[in-house]
Amino acid sequence: MSSRGSWWGSKSLTSLLRQHRLKKKEDIRIHTASVHAALSVTRLAAAIASVAAAKSGIESVEVGEDGNPIIISDIVASAAYLVAAVCAEAAESLGAHNTHVSSAINSGLAIQTTGDMITLTADAATCNSQSIECFLRQNLHKK
C-alpha cells in the first residue's frame, strides 16, 4: 500500500481540501444562526418586559405576608428584564456586536401592537429552529 493511501485514507488532496472548506462554511453558518437566534430571543424578552412594564398596576394585585401589596406585573416585568439581560450577554458571548445587541433591545422595547409581538415571537422561533437544524445537519454528517 502506498503511503498516500494509508495517510489520507485513499482520498485525494483536492477532496480533503474541499471537505475542509465545506466544513468551515458550515461552522460559519451555525455560528451566524446561533448569533441571530440569541439576538431574536433578546428582542422578544425585551418586548415582553416592555409590555409587562406598561401593564404595571393594572392586573392582579396580591397582599404579601407583611400586608404590603404585591403587583404581579411588576414581578413579571423584572423577570423579563433579567431574561433579556441574560440573552444579551449570551449574544455577546457568541460574538454579536454591542450595536446589534442594543439595537435588538431597543427594537424589542419599541413594540406597539400585538402584531409586533406575534412577529417577534415567530422570528425567535424560526431563528432557533434554523440554528438547531444547522447544528444537527453538521453533526449528522459526522456519523
Q: How would you portray this structure in words?
A:
- It is a single chain.
- The chain has 143 residues and is mainly α.
- It has one domain (39-142).
- It contains five helices and two strands; from the N terminus they run ααββααα.
- It has helices spanning 3-8, 13-54, 72-93, 98-109, 114-142; strands at 61-63, 69-71.
- The protein has a two-stranded antiparallel ribbon with strand order 1-2.
- Helix 2 (13-54) packs antiparallel against helix 3, helix 2 (13-54) packs parallel to helix 4 (98-109) and helix 2 (13-54) runs antiparallel to helix 5.
- The radius of gyration is 23 Å and the shape is elongated.
- The two termini are 26 Å apart.
Short description:
Pfam families: Auxin_canalis. The chain is mostly helical and 143 residues long. The chain has helices at residues 3-8, 13-54, 72-93, 98-109, 114-142, and strands spanning 61-63, 69-71.
Overall domain count: 1
Gap between N and C termini, in Å? 26 Å
- Helical content, roughly? over 70%
Strand order of the largest sheet: 1-2
Query: What's the total helix number?
Result: 5
Rg (CA only): 23 Å
Can you give the mean pLDDT?
Answer: 81
- Class computed from helices, strands and strand pairing: mainly alpha
Low-confidence stretches: none
Order of helices and strands: HHEEHHH
Shape: elongated
| Total E-strand runs | 2
Strand composition percent = under 5%
What is the makeup of the main sheet?
2 strands, antiparallel
Protein name: VAN3-binding protein-like auxin canalisation domain-containing protein
Domain VAN3-binding protein-like auxin canalisation: 9-126
Organism: Pyrus ussuriensis x Pyrus communis
